[in-house]
Amino acid sequence: MAWRWPILMVLCLWHGLLAAEPQPPDEQTLLQLYGNEELLSIATGSRQPLAKAPAVTTLITAEDIKAIGATDLDEVLETVPGLHVARDPAGYNPNYTIRGIYSSYNPQVLFLINGIPITNFLFGNRNEVWGGMPVQAIARIEVIRGPGSAVYGADAFAGVINIVTKTKDDIRGTQVGGRVGSFATHDGWALHGGRYGGFDVAAMVEYHQTAGPRPTVEADAQTFYDQLFGTHASLAPGPVNLQRDNLDLRLDLARGGWRFRGGLQHRRDIGTGAGVAQALDPQGRFGSDRWNADLTYHSTDLAEDWDLTAQVSYFDTSQTVQRNVLLYPPGAFGGAFPQGMIGNPEVFERQLRANLSGFYTGFDQHLLRVGLGFNYFTVYRIRELKNYTLVPNEPPLPLGALVDVSDTRAAFLTPGNRKDYFFFVQDEWKFAPDWELTLGLRYDYYSDFGDTTNPRLALVWETRQDLTTKLLYGRAFRAPSLAEMRNRNNPVAIGNPALKPETIDTVELAFDYRPTDRLRLGLNLFQYWWNDQIRFTFVPDLKGDTLAASNTGKQTGHGLELEADWRLADEFRVTGNYSWQNSTDETTHHDPGYAPRDKVYLRTDWEFLPDWHFTPQVDWVMNRRRPLGDHRPPIPDYAWVDLTLRRKRLHDHFELAFSIRNLFDVDAREPSPAGIPTALIPYDLPLAGRSFYGEIRIDF
């Protein structure tokens, strides 16, 4: 039975914890156990060893990213225990599903770049025109699995992903590189780090262009409507549209206690995936420019016993249409749309943030952190062109030509803004030898839905010299998005200005066991209660088939994560993890669907000759259920195997690598959304087949 797997693995690991004799570590062992590469700040704001951080965390370094030959952030995050990268039909945007918590726009995961959110106000996601994220400028990735609102506020719900970009010390000179591969993929990058005029300078540029994989969608939403109208307009079977053209720029300047960082994620010719309306669209193209800038001042000298940080940041993001987006193809709805049903939504958004925080060390055995701040979000412009209008309970009606409805009541949304004032306090208290208690509380007041208070408690016990035990509790919230509160002129789903935030309470028990300097084992157990889930449901005082957003959902879940990192020899290392979760939609008493119940990841790093590195890895995704009412066959499991061969220090300055993705060319698929009366893409979302990549790097 499936339940025996996790129980058996827990018992085996627990037996090992009890049976092993503790070995006193020497200084070199401690450096290996808690060296700089395992220090992270995402859990509390202060840098701590991974094992002692009062949260369940994962740290991925630039060396890890390079070892697996990753070309995009999603390939890296798939290695994190308890995290699976699912796909949405529109643009094939990533859905970072953590511990069984899945929703269409994935607003329950907070995404940070250098500790600053880039979550969009419109949908609560990372932008509908995401287009991926390259990895050459990344120094490390810090991930929290579990709540983080006591530190980060809104949307640190199921987890937090923090991308830390490289500084001058990470680059040390000049690096250039390039990659070519399947699907007409061409990548290039250049990084430079140095000191000029008293400033530490790091500059990074990355370029990515691809036609994208073209797996076949056998049937789509238009296939369903063809059956209703007796037409043959659908473009299915046909390939998904995953082409893209990306340019990423980053700049890091530091001097004394000051640091300025700026970045641009420039996206052009972004394909529509399986279609915005789940109908294939080979012609639609989106674009986006995401600008970010922040200025930080850090000082330990302004006041006695105080370590102070002040920061202001700016984020500007857009969604634009470069080529008409086909919601449905030519001939749709009985031939009413000979040119296709076209909808071109454009959105422009800004965010401003300011905060002041400090650590106070004047109390014996206490590290006190306090902070306050202000966030401002605005969708300041909406532009919409379309050739249709919607009438309740009727098929779309053609307008004959593209009409600009931006400043009319026919627009899908009106501009809006939100203000957030917050205060937080946190105490790290070493109340006894080998015991530390972290208490935290954050209060947020929002201008559009009111206030919310989120506590945390973390008890960390250094049980033995080789074993750390953690008992954790946290509450987190997810703020309603602008679309959920103000969506209008949509007879299918409208917003609700009376929404409350979603909340989650999570309890975790975690063990970090390091019997030798070459072996680390981890076990994490969790239980969560997700309340006030925002869903679109029928409202009694509305007529027709209109759905409105409301706080009607509730979900519970529990599970475990096992982790292992074993360096068998200087030249051979094995890492892996196993995750199991069991979630229940409490309104239907059924599995909520989509997320894998079981997931296994295994990787080996083998230096079989001097400077020759071979890294195979396998990602096994299992046991994904359908939600209640979705009567399609079960989603097939898949095991995805990658290989990377790397030659380092070739003539001192060169490095070569060759990678194969999906070695066995498995037909891997991510679940498509259920629908009423049927799923619009019935055979799920196909992933890329076997692909090949070669790269070269040069260090000066």
What's this model, at a glance?
The chain is mainly beta and 700 residues long. Helices cover 9% and strands 55% of the residues. The chain has a single domain, classed as Maltoporin, Chain A (Beta Barrel).
Written overview of the protein:
The chain is mostly beta strands and about 700 residues long. It has a single domain (about 5-600), classed as Maltoporin, Chain A. Helix content is about 10%, strand content about 55%. It is built from nine helices and 38 strands. It has a 22-stranded antiparallel beta barrel. Strands 3-8-9-6-7 form a five-stranded mixed sheet. A two-stranded antiparallel sheet has the order 1-2. A hairpin with a 6-residue loop joins strand 17 and strand 18. The chain is globular, with a radius of gyration of 25 Å. Mean pLDDT is about 90; it is low at about 1-35.
